[in-house]
Write a structure and sequence with these properties.
This protein is an alpha/beta fold. Helices cover about 55% and strands about 10% of the residues. Bound molecules: guanosine-5'-diphosphate-alpha-D-mannose and manganese (II) ion. The site of guanosine-5'-diphosphate-alpha-D-mannose has 24 residues, from strand 1, strand 2 and helix 4.
Length: about 375
């Protein structure tokens, strides 16, 4: 531990005008370099940087706090038991008291030298400034593989078409915004996935006065990217969630997709039971149900609730409560479906569908409260 240095204490504290929020996961090697680059780029602005680290095993938070101990402009928020880029950005922005906040990556892919231009645009009346790879003068340079490039473009055109978002680069993870604009919508932002900017734009009640500034996406420095196909799935989920006016949470959509895969597994297991083990229908169906529930539990634990993943004994306990929830869900399903079928005479498809919807909503709501409760 450094002793308290009198000069650090005596230094006149000027409250920052700009907080740069940097989400980190395993970026220990990039943090010191980024602070140097910010220091050079932001001369003349009272800035601070807030690293929001999800307890990286490589000690990123330790590195950031060691710098923080010498330099009051550097802060670090260490989150434990949680993962997620969007959530980290939101918490970082909400921990700021500066009038203006920026978000950028730690891996030096974002060009910090445009930060003063972005800040000037806010001073000139913009509410949101986006570092864009796709306006004239910007480019995704060496930063993206061709598959990622294609994915990024497709995601952009989907957002434009379905969410009526006019930005040239809504997937950008590099932007600056007036903090009051974020505070106003904080509770409706999704903590899952990568698409924080898109979410902010889609969730803002009125159109934010927006300026786009080109930059060239650089190659990642140390470490590796955390964007994977799951992140893409979450993005599609966010799109649907926003289309439904936020009524349908992203997690529920993930839960439904897992459930859909569970139906396939169920049928396959039933086939194996009947043909390989020559069981009666009753026992085959029962075995298939257990297999499918187990499958759903494992997948939901890995994907839908990866930020609250259960391990060890809690995994076993979670599995048992999940069986219980699904059994109750099935009873509810049967009750509603047969009730509709017999009394309202809706016909088997409507009744069956209503039953399935009910049990999906039931299973989702109750397992969130019981199996994966916070
Ligand atoms: N706290 C926290 N928690 N930080 C995270 C997490 C997490 O779960 N996952 C990633 N990060 C941090 C990384 O450490 C990095 O600083 C930043 O978020 C971006 O992560 P990368 O893994 O480098 O993402 P990328 O380069 O593939 O994606 C970037 O470019 C995309 C556009 O192509 C990001 O800026 C995306 O937001 C952007 O859409
Ligand atoms: Mn990156």
């Amino acid at each position: 531990m450094d002793p308290v240095r009198p000069d650090a204490v005596a230094r006149p504290a000027q409250s920052p005008e700009l907080s740069v929020v940097v989400p980190t996961f395993k970026e220990a090697a990039n943090v010191p370099r980024l602070v140097e680059l910010l220091d050079a780029a932001l001369a003349g602005i009272a800035w601070e940087v807030i690293f929001v680290d999800d307890d990286s095993p490589d000690g990123t938070a330790r590195v950031a706090k060691a710098i923080s101990a010498r330099d009051p402009r550097v802060r670090c928020l260490r989150r434990v038991g949680r993962r997620g880029l969007a959530g980290a950005c939101i918490e970082g922005m909400l921990s700021s008291a500066a009038p203006v906040v920026a978000v950028m990556d730690a891996d030096l892919q974002h060009d910090e030298t445009i930060l003063p231009k972005m800040y000037a645009a806010i001073r000139d009346g913009a509410e949101l400034v986006v570092g864009s790879r796709y306006v004239d003068g910007g480019s995704s340079g060496q930063g993206l593989s061709s598959v990622r490039q294609w994915g990024s473009e497709t995601a952009t055109s989907l957002a434009r078409r379905f969410l009526k978002i006019e930005l040239s680069d809504p997937m950008s993870g590099f932007f600056m915004i007036r903090r009051d604009k974020v505070e106003a919508i904080a509770s409706s932002l999704s903590r899952e996935g990568f698409k924080i900017l898109l979410d902010i734009v889609a969730s803002s009640p009125e159109r934010l006065k927006t300026v786009e500034i080109p930059f060239t996406f650089r190659e990642r420095q140390a470490g590796e990217s955390k964007l994977d196909s799951l992140v893409t799935a979450e993005y599609l989920g966010l799109l649907f969630s926003k289309l439904s006016g936020g009524l349908v949470p992203v997690r529920f959509l993930m839960f439904l997709s897992v459930g859909a895969s569970g139906i396939v597994v169920h049928l396959a297991a039933l086939k194996v039971a009947l043909h390989v083990f020559a069981t009666t229908f009753f026992w085959g169906e029962l075995a298939a149900t257990v297999v499918a529930m187990t499958w759903n539990f494992i997948l939901n634990n890995q994907l839908t609730y990866r930020d609250r993943r259960l391990t060890g004994l809690r995994f076993v306990w979670g599995l048992l409560t999940f069986y219980l929830v699904c059994s109750l869900g099935t009873i509810a399903n049967m009750g509603v479906a047969t009730g509709l079928f017999e009394t309202v005479e809706t016909g088997p498809w409507v009744a069956g569908f209503a039953g399935a919807v009910l049990s999906a909503v039931f299973n989702y709501t109750v397992s969130a409260a019981l199996t994966w409760r916070k």
